[in-house]
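This follows on from our talk about sequence and fold. Please put the record directly below this note.
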Amino acid sequence: MAGLMGRGLGQTRPEVAAVALGVVALVVAHAAQLAGNVPCALCYLERWPYRVAVLLGVLAWALPGVRFWVRPLLVVALAAGAAIAFVHVGVEFGWWKSPLPECAAPILNPHSVHDLLASMPARPSKPCDDPTDLIPGLPVSMAQMNLMYALFGTGLIAMSMRGGKPA
């Protein structure tokens, strides 16, 4: 975290910022799950870009020779996270259907009760169009917060690569 201290946001080392952003996002997601929030399939998918950002950030920090190639991938990873979050927000608002089959209700054509029970999932999943509010009383879903966070992270990493100079 020494790379974040004593510098402006635009002067942060991209790999340090990516690791910090990714770890915070994953800790919040897992803490919300431990607190009883049930994630849907899109929620689980939204976590992957942060895992990739942490991995790439550690790689760039540990191997300075690859920083030139890895740093742009940090922006791509967080932008992908924003894109997935945008899709999730669109599903929550009913703008489109989820692209994941896990988010749709199963089509059941059982020939018997045994077939019906055999076709049911081992554990129920949460529908992707049912928003989860992290903060009670605040009408902003976790997907919406993740979208804002991923956009912020993408901008932070991109600015830190430019030395804090706007485009």
